[in-house]
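Treating backbone geometry as a discrete language has practical consequences that deserve illustration. In the encoding step, the backbone of a single protein was reduced to a row of integers, each denoting a local shape. The amino acid sequence and the backbone structure tokens for this protein are reproduced below.
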Amino acid sequence: LEQAAIEKGKDMMEHGYWAHISPEGKDPWQFIQAQKYTYTSAGENLAKDFAETEAMIRAWMNSPTHRANILDTRFTETGIAVVDGQLDGVETTLVVQMFAHPSQQIAIITEPDIAQATRTSESTELTPELFLQSSPNAQPSMGKNLNPDVMSAQVVAVEDAKLAFLSPLQISKAVFLAVITLLIIVLLYDAYLERKYHTIRNVGKNIAHVSFLLFVGILIVILKGGTLL
């Protein structure tokens, strides 16, 4: 599932789309099947440009459909990938999380079980159930009992995903804040020289410019990125 998530992230970067299904009609399940992984149910969560893992987890858990995927007891395995690159010409960090329940489970079989299995060797073909969180018909069941073991295991798996040390959003914010800080320093120094040498100017007051730049800087600091799909 982790490799399937990596390939899905790469495919979105290479073909320039941000969706569960590619423009060519390739759905998430094809990436899972390409890894020779067979399943009875599967799901996918996507996130983009979150600066912190905790913020991404909160966003997923606050979204009913994404939360339903994370806590769905039908999903027993999960794989996560973080892919950095350019999406539509913009530096982007994508997070892809795949969920599934494998169609074959490893079990400890005793001798009586083997004898019983021999007598009932008929097999039933399972039809995979696909749970695409963005599907219009996907309605999470809000009243079902959640398995605490599955819930904690899958949430921990999300927390273990390592986002880039500096996301594109963080880099952009750092650059803009550095420029604003430099301009404020220059304006304050200019105001100091003006006061010291009693220079008369027919321009706007430096204090007004500094106040405006401080306001812009505050907006940049509180700006939070990240989108879900």
User: Anything to note?
Assistant: The CA atoms of residues 42 and 69 lie 9 Å apart. The chain has two domains: 2-163, 169-228. The radius of gyration is 26 Å.
